[in-house]
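Researcher: Here's a chain I'd like modeled. Treat it as a single chain, no partners, no ligands.
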Amino acid sequence: MTSEHLRDSITRFNGYFIGSSILMIVMGLLAIVMPLAAGIGISVFVSWLIFLTGLAHLVYAFAAKDVGGFLWRLLIGIVYVAGGGYLAFHPRLSLVSLTLVLAVILFAEGLMQIFAYFSLRLLPGSRWILIDGIVTFLLGTMIGLSWPWGSSWAIGTLVGINFLLSGCTRMGYGGTVKRTLG
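Model: Modeled as a single isolated chain. Structure tokens:
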């Protein structure tokens, strides 16, 4: 492969990369402006993933070698299908449930990072672990204390911020590649 061919391939890829970055930024802004719609969309998507996982469990049950394994996998599949189907057709309940799970996860993650800091505090840069832990803990607490009313904004806003920041970061990478190639 010649260097000119490689340069053309990288330039073409970088164009797609920048295009996807712009799409992520736009989607992030839309999610931030319409957090309830984004949150419900995410909840419905997760619900369908749970439902499809249940179908996979049901299919997998027939691969069991014994009756006990078959029944166990069958029951798990039924629970996933029923739960995912119910949540898919009750998107507000799905959003409220997902928000509560997110609050608990962020709360626990923040606590674990704060505890981890105390065992790593002598290492350079360990303060970032503490800062991340405190911010994550506070975010989990804030979402938890506003639950269930905060469900209308939490998931959509957080995903929107993530998409916006990821899109901006990718755009920065794409710009660096473009400047490097000249």
